[in-house]
């Protein structure tokens, strides 16, 4: 049976997630510590999830130098309370958690291992498919790796890495300087509620690796519509969503649509292979 996780950026929809027939509930987002709930809120939410017999997944955002210590403090507070899976999104956090409790499971998050093969062919209209940095996995030795639906996992599966699919969109970047905060002339911690409402942009240029500059998209290529949530930018997923483990991001769904997405995931036959 497919394992299903609902991922929440805040505990606001925790009761809804707990009422769903899912195996795990994740808290957090890959890009921003400000958006991660405070320590007491995280511990209280994790306690509810454990009490309901579900797996707690704490999504650790990318740790910039000025936020690394605070992030580790929050992670260690939650993991000290009981079994926890931590999805890490930078190598420094993964290495710092080498002393984690025995019941703390480490997985490589969406922001950690996504790699893009180099291709600077001038006639290529699109980028080559993203892959998984299996060399980094070999160093960090996580229990599993999270990927989006457009990532080619053939090499990771061939090397025996369990794959967890984030099925709702494809994260294409995280801004160290948050575009949402700048858009609203705000900053931490006042910006926290601003990224609950996304906005869209349209990409009319691409980065040409052959020459190291931006250029207009080739003729005939439709400019993609990108969605900005906080400091993260997403594009629509076009790849397969079948997997042993589904991650469903509640932000993209109304309550009715979220329930339907969980049902669809439950009905799927797991196919743990590449694209």
Please tag this protein with its features.
TIM Barrel; globular; four-stranded antiparallel beta sheet; single chain; eight-stranded parallel beta sheet; disordered C terminus; 8 helices
Write the layout of secondary structure elements.
Layout: E1 3-8, H1 14-18, E2 24-28, H2 39-51, E3 55-59, H3 68-79, E4 84-88, H4 91-96, E5 104-108, E6 114-115, E7 131-132, H5 134-140, E8 145-148, H6 154-158, E9 163-166, E10 169-174, H7 179-183, E11 199-202, E12 205-208, E13 213-216, E14 225-229, E15 232-236, E16 245-249, H8 255-267
Parallel strand pairs: 1-2, 1-16, 2-3, 3-4, 4-5, 8-9, 9-16
Antiparallel strand pairs: 6-7, 10-15, 11-14, 12-13, 14-15
Helix pairs in contact: 2-3
Provide an overview of this structure:
The protein is an alpha/beta fold. It has a single domain, classed as TIM Barrel, CATH 3.20.20. It is 24% helix and 26% strand. It is built from eight helices and 16 strands. The strands form four sheets. Strands 5-4-3-2-1-16-9-8 form an eight-stranded parallel β-sheet. Strands 10-15-14-11 form a four-stranded antiparallel β-sheet, with no helix packed on it. Strand 3, helix 3 and strand 4 form a beta-alpha-beta unit. Helix 2 runs parallel beside helix 3. The protein starts with a strand and ends in an 8-residue tail after the last helix. The C terminus is likely disordered.
